[in-house]
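thread: overnight batch results

M.L. [08:02]
morning all. the overnight job finished for the chain we discussed friday. pasting input first so we're all looking at the same thing
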Amino acid sequence: MNNFGIASGLTLDLMTRALDAAAMRHTAYAKNVANVSIPDYQPLRVSFEEQLSLIRSDVLGRGNEGGAQRALANVEPRVEQNASTFDSEDEKVRLDSEVANMMQNAVWYQSLLAALNKSNGILRLAIRGGSN
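M.L. [08:03]
and the structure it wrote out:
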């Protein structure tokens, strides 16, 4: 039976890793903002969603939660330097873009926390037998 509901181990593991990635991403954006005026600074970025897309078929495979857990175990958010070279002023770190990305990431982080809290609330309710 495929158990990919909000309370499944796979879902909780994925949410935890996504929270870690969002926290790392926030730090990367903050460092990019702090170094916006440094010539030749290479901005940081977090690699996470790219890794998830590579294992998507394993995670979404029906009835294979064990395989999905094993595939997800190899996915860890990583901070990387953007290796592109800057030929023009437009390709450098832009303060407005970094701040906007930081705000979007904060909303994403809050959404993940709300989902995790909802999941924990459901589990608490189940443990109490449906009574408050």
